[in-house]
Specification:
Layout (H helix, E strand, L loop, with lengths): L5 E6 L5 H5 L6 H8 L1 E4 L8 H6 L5 E7 L2 E3 H13 E7 L1 H5 L11 H10 L15 E4 L2 E4 L3 E6 L9 E3 L6 H17 L8 E2 L7 H4 L66 H12 L9 H12 L5 H5 L20
Parallel strand pairs: 1-2, 1-3, 3-5, 5-9, 9-10
Antiparallel strand pairs: 4-8, 6-7
């Protein structure tokens, strides 16, 4: 390879959208090619683990890691790439907070396997066969990674230098981050403090959102298919769950502008420890129930009736942040490991 800075990107437990998002910087991808040599990017080229193992420590200048860590292979690769990289970036929501994979922390490894391999209308497995971690064949031993009970964010496994939020990150933010890193590597420009969340606006999605907001109380929440939202009006005020009040901006409020409530993929606002808890507080503040002088039990019943119209609260409010939340995972059969 040349003397150009070295770039790596790895795909762990995620959907793969973060890998594709790099291409969304359009013509800037040519600039990335001019500036970097790709040292490891198995999604687009035939790299092997032994290639990374052969590099000197710190050989890779920046590694964009996307995906949560949910098995022993992910853990091994995280430690290996940390050892070989100067800068490790948790790229996207799965690496940053666990995201969709971490919703399995609401259940157990055994329950997950039961759903995938046994109790599944698309599976024909009468002998109840499960994957095994090791099996001997004529040619030798074949192995599979150990599947963890708990999904972890990248920084729960290794030391992380920077976080780039989003599911996936938005192109302007991707390019801005790459520019900062390139400037530091080639021109000696200062980097943000280690541990910084980069590519965000610092304010709530609601403050980026152009939809009109007013004071309103909600007596029922709707799922997206149950209502056609009124254009130009705040979705939360129309009874559509929108996590904008509890989510840091940087995306440009793209989802609310097309009638889809913010899902919360950019993570919590600065200083907020638990994004789901913050959103629950916001929801509680707009629920309309009871009247002056009404019996407390009746008011409680009405509040519960409104809350019951929110389908899957855990999956709604912790869709992206379960691994990083105060909950981290649910206890199943008394166990929370």
């Amino acid at each position: 390879m040349s003397d150009k800075p070295k770039l790596a990107m790895y795909w762990s437990a995620s959907c793969g959208g973060c890998e594709i998002s790099v291409l969304n910087i359009h013509e800037h991808i040519l600039t990335v090619d001019e500036v970097f040599d790709v040292a490891f990017f198995p999604c687009i080229a035939d790299f092997k683990v032994h290639h990374v193992e052969s590099y000197p420590d710190g050989y890779i200048d920046v590694c964009l890691w996307n995906g949560a860590v949910r098995n022993s292979e992910g853990e091994h690769m995280a430690h290996l790439l940390r050892q070989k990289s100067k800068f490790m970036v948790a790229y996207g929501s799965c690496a940053y907070e666990g995201c969709i994979p971490a919703l399995s922390n609401l259940t157990s490894k055994e329950a997950t396997f039961n759903t995938v391999y046994f109790d599944n209308p698309s599976i024909d497995n009468p002998n109840k066969v499960l994957p095994t971690e090791s099996v001997q064949v004529t040619e030798g031993e074949l192995t599979l990674p150990t599947f963890w009970n708990t999904v972890k964010s990248l920084d729960q496994v290794i030391d992380v230098d920077y976080y780039l939020p989003g599911c996936p990150p938005e192109p302007p933010q991707i390019w801005a981050v790459l520019q900062v890193i390139v400037g530091a590597l080639l021109e000696g420009k200062p980097l943000p403090p280690k541990g910084s969340l980069v590519g965000h606006s610092g304010v709530a999605v609601c403050e980026e959102c152009p939809l009109e907001k007013s004071e309103k109380t909600i007596t029922k929440f709707f799922r997206p298919y149950e209502i056609v939202p009124e254009p130009g009006v705040c979705l939360l005020e129309q009874g559509i769950v929108c996590n904008g009040p509890a989510t840091v901006g940087g995306c440009g409020a793209l989802c609310p502008q097309v009638g889809m409530g913010c899902r919360g993929c950019y993570g919590p606002l600065p200083g907020v420890e638990d994004q789901g808890g913050k959103m629950l507080s916001a929801i509680a503040s707009v629920i309309g129930a009871g009247e002056a002088g009404m019996d407390e039990h009746e008011i409680e019943r009405q509040i519960e009736a409104v809350v019951d119209t929110i389908v899957d609260p855990a999956g709604t409010f912790y869709r992206f942040s379960m691994a990083h939340s105060l909950l981290e995972r649910a206890k199943v059969n008394g166990k929370g490991e």
